[in-house]
């Protein structure tokens, strides 16, 4: 017979868990004691449960394996809620383990007790309170299975104090070997027929195609057919965006150059589409034929109701389509490719604008120039995310980590920390607004303690810039969204990190090179000029692309 908490750790080891991120509490002490004896799993102590959750979710995004995080009952568990939603909507496999008071007898009444399982229900794929130690292996195996199965997401297990201390002779269940099913041949033929009969087909690469590593098959399909492609924000980097058939990223909701290219199409192949993202196009009754290629059937929405569905492993489906298709000599792509050229022509002079405070398009280009091909940028949430989605050329999958699902502030720093841990030999940068950075800035201490090599760039405008942009766009007066900031250089140094402040556009480029090539945790305080956000993003782009 062994203690249940020891069995729990053995089950996690059987699943291949490397790290547990979190803030333990009194109700986790049995679990913590068992974890201290693991030779395989390392505890990463964070300064807030939300940071732990974001790190676990990002581990899942990078590896496809379930990231694990730990919190106590009550306030510890409630601090996981945002991270759970982040993983659930973003399709990142993550397991949350929370403690609970003894469930068989209580000496503290209802102190700190919430129904955490009920709370987690709407924002997870699976949530369960352990009431018997014998069931631990099956419940943990089931939780991992569900977390990693398409579409991946968050799962939760509550381990009460008295159950953790029970003894059992149960043993871990081994992982099963699973392959995703292949798409039906008739659905492939239907999709290929629609493509061959089209005049101007187009590919839209979404989140599901990024998760399931379809790059190689997709590139072969594009090279054979010559069909142009665009991405959603969560699909960035699946194909190298320097490819001549790349049309852009759907960062704005509508009216951008890339949307005009989609409007020019009569057949859209939507690969790995997820209605959780802002739609890259809107369907209407007499619009183009839409082919849905995904591991799951389409969730029907007022703006999305595809005509042909190809369901199965996406990479295999693309391969089958490539083998079957005969490229049509009558396909016309010149007009849609001209919209891409229009976007490049519009952005190029903006990216050269070396004003100070720094102009967002110039910042995006400066960071792209500084980062190596496999460098990873992790974006928090703010208006700059649109500039990066549109203007930052992604060369490889999962090198631009942005959240276009929950779109939460506060995830940029923990996400970059996890990236630096998973890929210690690659250059990693968090790009945060001053508002988003301050929501989890305490994790700077964790990053320094872990000895990570990374840069945190803060876009400093002393306000919630995204909402100010929307406020201006809606014609409201500028009110209620500005604040003061600490001295970020001193703030970084107080944590033992290196602090830097940008003094000009040329100085920004020097700092980006210095922090990239110098070990340790670096913070760059970068004043930013957002005065033209509304004019460029809401007026100029829509006007110029419409005139084309």
Question: Can you characterise this structure?
Answer:
Strands 3-2-4-5-7-6 form a six-stranded parallel sheet, with helices on both faces. Strands 11-10-9-12-13-14 form a six-stranded parallel sheet, with helices on both faces. Strands 16-15-17-18-20-19 form a six-stranded parallel sheet, with helices on both faces. The radius of gyration is 24 Å and the shape is globular. α2 (29-35) links the parallel β2 and β3 (42-45). The longest helix has 18 residues, at 334-351. The mean pLDDT is 95. The protein has 548 residues and is an alpha/beta fold. It contains 23 helices and 20 strands.
Quick description:
With 548 residues, this protein is α/β, with parallel strands linked by helices.
Give the topology, please.
Elements: E1 2-3, H1 4-14, E2 19-23, H2 29-35, E3 42-45, H3 49-63, E4 67-71, H4 75-78, H5 81-90, E5 94-100, H6 116-120, E6 126-129, H7 136-148, E7 154-160, H8 161-164, E8 167-168, H9 185-197, E9 201-205, H10 207-211, H11 215-225, E10 229-231, E11 246-249, H12 257-263, E12 267-271, E13 289-294, E14 308-311, H13 314-324, H14 334-351, H15 360-370, E15 376-379, H16 384-391, E16 400-401, H17 412-422, E17 428-433, H18 434-439, H19 443-449, E18 454-460, H20 465-473, H21 488-494, E19 498-501, H22 505-517, E20 521-527, H23 533-547
Parallel strand pairs: 2-3, 2-4, 4-5, 5-7, 6-7, 9-10, 9-12, 10-11, 12-13, 13-14, 15-16, 15-17, 17-18, 18-20, 19-20
Antiparallel strand pairs: 1-8
């Amino acid at each position: 017979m062994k203690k249940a908490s020891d069995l729990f750790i053995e089950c996690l080891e059987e699943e291949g868990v490397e790290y547990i991120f979190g803030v333990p509490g009194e109700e986790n002490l049995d679990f913590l004691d068992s974890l201290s004896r693991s030779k395989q799993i390392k505890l990463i102590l964070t300064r807030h449960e939300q940071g732990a959750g974001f790190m676990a979710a990002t581990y899942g995004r990078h590896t496809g394996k379930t990231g694990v995080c730990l919190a106590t009952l009550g306030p510890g568990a409630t601090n996981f809620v945002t991270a759970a939603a982040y993983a659930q909507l973003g399709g990142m496999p993550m397991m949350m383990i929370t403690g609970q008071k003894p469930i068989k007898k209580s000496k503290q009444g209802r102190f700190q007790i919430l129904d955490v399982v009920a709370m987690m229900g709407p924002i997870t794929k699976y949530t369960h309170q352990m009431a018997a130690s014998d069931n631990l292996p099956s419940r943990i195996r089931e939780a991992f299975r569900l977390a990693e199965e398409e579409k991946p997401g968050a799962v939760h297990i509550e381990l009460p104090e008295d159950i953790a201390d029970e003894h059992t002779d149960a043993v871990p269940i081994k992982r099963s070997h699973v392959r995703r099913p292949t798409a039906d041949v008739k659905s492939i033929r239907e999709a290929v027929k629609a493509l061959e009969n089209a005049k101007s087909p187009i590919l839209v690469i979404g989140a599901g195609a990024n998760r399931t590593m379809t790059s190689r098959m997709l590139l072969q399909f594009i090279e054979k057919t010559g069909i142009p492609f665009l991405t959603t924000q969560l699909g960035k980097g699946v194909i190298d965006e320097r490819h001549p058939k790349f049309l852009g990223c759907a960062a704005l909701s509508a009216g951008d150059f890339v949307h005009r290219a989609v409007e020019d199409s009569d057949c859209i192949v939507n690969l790995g589409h997820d209605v959780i993202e802002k739609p890259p196009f809107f369907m209407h009754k007499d619009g183009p034929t839409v082919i849905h290629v995904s591991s799951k059937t389409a969730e029907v929405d007022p703006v999305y109701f595809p005509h042909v569905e190809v369901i199965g492993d996406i990479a295999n489906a693309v391969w089958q389509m490539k083998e079957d298709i005969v490229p049509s000599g009558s396909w016309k792509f010149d007009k849609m490719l001209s919209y891409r050229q229009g976007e490049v022509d519009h952005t190029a002079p903006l990216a050269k604008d070396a004003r100070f405070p720094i102009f967002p398009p110039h910042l995006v280009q400066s960071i792209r120039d500084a980062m190596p091909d496999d460098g990873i940028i992790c974006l928090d949430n703010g208006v700059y995310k649109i500039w990066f989605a549109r203007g930052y050329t992604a060369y490889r999958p999962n090198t631009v980590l942005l959240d276009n699902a929950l779109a939460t502030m506060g995830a940029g720093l923990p996400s970059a920390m996890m990236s630096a841990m998973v890929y210690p030999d690659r250059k990693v940068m968090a790009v945060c607004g001053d508002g988003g950075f301050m929501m989890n800035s305490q994790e700077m201490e964790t990053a320094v303690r872990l000895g990570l090599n990374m840069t945190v760039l803060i876009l400093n405008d002393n306000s919630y810039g995204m909402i100010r942009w929307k406020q201006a766009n809606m014609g409201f007066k500028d009110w209620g969204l500005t604040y003061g900031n600490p001295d970020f250089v001193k703030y970084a140094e107080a944590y033992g990190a290196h602090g830097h402040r940008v003094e000009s556009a040329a100085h920004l480029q020097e700092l980006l090179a210095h922090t990239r090539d110098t070990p340790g945790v670096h913070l760059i305080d970068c004043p930013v000029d957002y005065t033209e956000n509304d004019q460029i993003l809401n007026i100029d782009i829509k006007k110029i692309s419409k005139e084309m």
